[in-house]
Amino acid sequence: MAQYQTEQKKILLAYMKAHSEETFTIEELCERLKKEPAVICAPGKSTIYRIMPKLVKEGLVKRFVKDGSRKFSYQMVCGEHCENHLHMKCSVCGRLYHMEDTESEELLFKVMKKHHFRIDEGTTVLFGYCEGCQEREDES
User: Which of 20, 1, 4, 14 is nearest to 78 (CA)?
Assistant: First the structure.
């Protein structure tokens, strides 16, 4: 059954889809939507707070604990097969990377075989440092 979508929810989803490589706190989303020229009437902070848990529950958005704080950041899910592979998140820039399906399967199989432990790939995120952030660190 199709679910009713408010105009605010459509605006929020469209913006997050257009910036799917980025993570946002609710405050950051609020500010960015206000500055977005294409958005005539940006959803308010309380509206975004109300919508986000629903988007997470629907599997459209992933929620992360923002490093070193008690805030959450949110990111658009890449597509319908996003739950079938592991994700890697850069601890510096916050970008989310999708591990190739075959690499995910190999890693999951090794963990299962050696430790008899099944990882939930749809909710597992490996934290580390992306190539760009590693290079910037090496330069400084």
Answer: 20
Quickly tell me which residue has 């929620």 as its tokens: 63
What do you get for the CA distance between the two ends of the chain, in Å? 54
Q: pLDDT tens, position by position, for the chain (140 residues)?
A: 445 578 899 999 999 988 887 888 999 999 999 998 888 888 999 999 999 999 999 888 888 877 677 888 888 886 655 667 788 888 888 787 888 888 888 999 999 999 999 988 777 888 899 999 999 888 87
Residues 110 and 90 in one domain: yes
By residue range, what is the domain housing residue 102? 83-140
The single residue listed with the structure tokens 């097969």 is 81
